[in-house]
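Reading group handout, session on sequence-to-structure problems. Before we discuss, look at one worked example. The prompt was deliberately terse, the way you'd type it at a terminal:

> structure LysR family transcriptional regulator

The input record follows.
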Amino acid sequence: MVTASRIRISLRTMEQFVAVAEELHFHRAAQRLNMSQPPLTGAIRKLEEDLDVMLIERSNRVLGLTPAGKAFLEHARETLCQADLAITTTQDVAAGRTGIVRLGYVGSSLYGRLPDVIRRFRAQHPNVRLELREATTASQVTALREGALDVSVLIPPLVNADDIALTPFDIDRLCLAIPKDHPLGQRSDLTLAELADEPFVLWPMNEGRGFHLKVVRLCANAGFVPRVAQEAYGMHAVLSLVAVGSGVSVVPESMSGFRQDQISYCPLSTSEAQFTLALGYRVLSPVAEGFVVSCRQEK
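And the output record:
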């Protein structure tokens, strides 16, 4: 008797058995499979010999399935369905029609074109799961290298990150943020130089070196070095601290709607206040590449 561990049954053999079991007629089953009858009869006989089990009751014709045949039919159908699913899923993943895209983003990007990009991508790719994770630029670079993120929306320039490919994504500007109840809080023509003696709320340089240095450079051009009273991870945290009077800050203008009842925002007219957000990535899966292509097309 052949042991179960040594039995190898091909998907083609299962397909042949299912055809015979459903047609209950070898000739019709052979026509359905686009083959001649003798090889089909031989394949079913060999299957029964390999299993050492009679699957089909027959005399001069097929009479029906044995209890073992009925059980095998059920599992053969399931196996063929799973095989078809495996093929379809593999092809869909390779074509970028299904899968997961893990997208990191800096907080300010949610106030630009990113929400519209996400909305359109989800509508066009309903079988792709888009996982969103807010993080600083530095944290996203680390996550890209560790394989924890597929694509990032971050703020260049990056430091020691030649392995990260960058594609322009959005444009924003910097503006001033001060508490609403600050003596200067009602000034619409406020300049950065007038905040020289104020305590600043910024983010750690190692979490966004390029962006941090841009703010410091703007202050230097205005004639002072900012006195950092407190640091916060993430722009929402920075603005929340400004709202409670911990200091003033320089933040993305796109976020000027955040806590407007507690924060006054003043634009910076200099061209140096403009900055770019970029898509960052390393090795792209087909579905992640589809997301990047979608971002480029919708600009």
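Points for discussion. First: The first strand starts at residue 56 and ends at 58. Second: Residues 99-169+277-297 form a domain with the D-Maltodextrin-Binding Protein; domain 2 fold (CATH 3.40.190.10).
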